[in-house]
Amino acid sequence: MSKKTLRGKFRRIDVSTSRRDWGMVSIGNYTPIQQIDPELWDPLEIAIFRTHSPSRDLYKDLGRGDTFVASQRLSSLLRHAADSDVTLLPIRLQSIDGEQECQGFNIVVPRVELRKLPATTSGKPSFFFCKNPFGLFCSEALALEIEREQFVGISLETDSEA
Amino acid sequence: MIPKVAYYNLTSEYFEEINSGEPFINFPGGYPREFDFLSEKPCSDNWNPRIFAFALGNWNRKKYSDFPVIAGEHRGASIRVRKLLESHFPGLIEFLPFRVRTTIGTVIDVEYSLLHLLKCAVAVDRKNSVLLPRQTSFSRPTRQDDCLLEKVVINSRKLVEPICRVSGWSPYYLFREDVVQMLTDEGLVPQRHRLFELVELC
Fold first, then answer.
1. What ipTM score was computed for the predicted complex, to two decimals?
2. Res. A56: pLDDT tops 80
């Protein structure tokens, strides 16, 4: 399968960065996210934002490049459009002194992890984690929905390789 | 050769502790990194004493360590240690207080501070020390995580302060033997002090 054929079929989801804000948070619980039993997850768990009041819809964990935190609005879209492919674990986004708190954020845990990008989109998950190329990927259809909603702080790359 | 003066290194040994489930502290987002702990200038003007660090591992105990394990290169101390050292050695250490809570927000009832050693001895014997592979000079490191030396020879005559760091060898927090003895006598057993074995006294 050539790179050209795959282009646009799946898109890598990442945080977009700016000089002021790298879109990073720190999740306090350091258990690898894939090892967490969603049934045992405590919704009181905290992630820390450092730059300024959260204005993004997507953040990445500073310590783990494969773990993302989504706003309530983005979480709702994922729940609606990719419910069978994603688990959302609620988390409180707080300032480092604990004085500001934003609720409604969720850790995004893809249920599917693939070793490489699928050759076709047919019957494939709309949302998954891929080892090579490394990253969180979604289908073109889901990417279009995300773009349509004009979420803040999300990058959707199109040049994914097989 | 028997050293005339012994120094001890205060080390966190945190990897071992983390794996054993012992309680340790983690600063979110590497918070203290934006402060220059190698500088002899105090950081407290910009320090926010209300910040929280995360308590990780098993904190279900009544007695907490006076020398908490902190992930990364920093060292911490309890309020008891702080009071003792501030009264006996004013100006040698800056104490930067912080609060501790679990990852679900339960505040732990401890009063800890990060240690910022304000005295840095230029004491590495360049002639006899050996640089790490790929290091080409003994220039003063500007980052906490710089560790330039494979074999360290220290000129003991330049270790004049009872508590100090050594320029060019940033991971080490040195406490003179009498300071360690004083902490021990006060019941603040410095569990994580190790004899500073690499010092060669001139």
1. 0.84
2. yes
